[in-house]
Amino acid sequence: MRIANNKTVLTESSIDIVTDSVGIVIGDRDETKKNTLKMYIPRFMAGIDLEADNGDAKETSVNFTSSKIVNSQNKDIGASTVMTQNYIEMPCYLIPGLSMPRFVKGQLLRVTFADGDIRSPTVLPYTVQDQEKKMTDILWMGIPAKPNDVDEITPDNSYFLEINTRDQYVRLYTSNVNGENNPFNFLINTKDGYIEVKDDSARLFEWLYNEDKFHWHTDAGLDVSLKENTATILCEKYDLTASDSITMKTSKFSLTADKGEFNVEDMAIKGTKLEAKETNVLIDSASAIVLKTIGTDNWHPNVFPTCIVGIPHGGVSGGIIGLKGS
User: Fold this and answer.
1) What is the pLDDT of residue 236?
2) Contact predicate 293/324, CB 8 Å
3) What does the alpha-carbon distance between residue 150 and residue 148 come to, in Å, rounded to a whole number?
4) CA 214 distance to own-chain centroid
5) In a 3-state reduction of DSSP, which class is residue 157?
């Protein structure tokens, strides 16, 4: 019997073809571990008390008082128990390359039956928008890149975008299964607060929010880190070329090297103090060397140069041309 309108009641046969119905989700894909749902269909399962099962998908073993068959020579033939369940596990129609939406317990979904056969139910990915339930989801959109038709589709042979509000990240991945130069993996992790770009080597770029840090690393070992107010570069060779000029300004400067050269055509050093502590110092000049102080009292050589007549002493009389001071 079916109410057609406020004046008409139709009687229908139980053998009328059923093409679709409405089902209630009582077991999501986290339970089935695949693209299927555990559904309760009131039209066919009215005798099942969902309230007694707290709305959960359950299997129950039912015992019989006797399993003997009348007039059978073997009185113990058959099982004494049978398994029953309060759900039907159904696959869901999917758009190629798009994962099944996350349907949660209690949602109403449309169920269709192939050729009107109730033994072949399938869930259609349509539902009424529900603003009340927690709808964290994992949306996977991808295009297979597998080289052979018989190969199973996996993340490694696909180009895909994954939006995951349950684990809180967004991931873009490209494969190199078809001879591409290399794969790329672009990850935005909102749970831990970082962005990472990687390939199939040690190369990576990181943006770490909580550490206030940008980090680069190459496959050969170059490592660049910008953390808070500190820049750190680790490398084997550093080349810097500026066609016009380089300006550096700091309150303190330190340079440590086992060996080095300064090749400057015209260099000027200005300061209030210049101190060189070395075992041997060699100054090689093609023309002249001039050391000048404010007055004669400010020139204090630690050793006396030897003049042309072999007498060690300093000053102008020592034969060192251009040396001014006492």
Assistant:
1) 93
2) yes
3) 6
4) 15
5) helix
Residue partners of 225: CB distance under 8 A and separation at least 6 = 213, 214, 215, 216, 231, 232, 233
Distance CA 185, CA 117 (A): 45
For residues 157 and 144, the answer to whether their CB atoms sit within 8 Å is yes
Nearest to 182 by CA among 219, 235, 221, 225: 219
Residue extents of the structural domains in the chain = 2-127, 138-234, 279-326
pLDDT block averages, 10 residues each, the chain of length 326: 57 63 87 88 78 76 61 60 82 84 85 82 78 75 84 84 93 92 95 96 96 96 96 94 91 88 81 74 71 60 52 49 46
pLDDT at position 172 is: 95
| First-last CA distance in the chain | 126
pLDDT at 298: 56
Collapsing DSSP to helix, strand or coil, 143 comes out as strand
Q: What are 168's two structure tokens?
A: 């809180």
46: tokens are 């009215």
Please state, in angstroms and rounded to a whole number, the distance separating the CA atoms of residues 227 and 211: 7
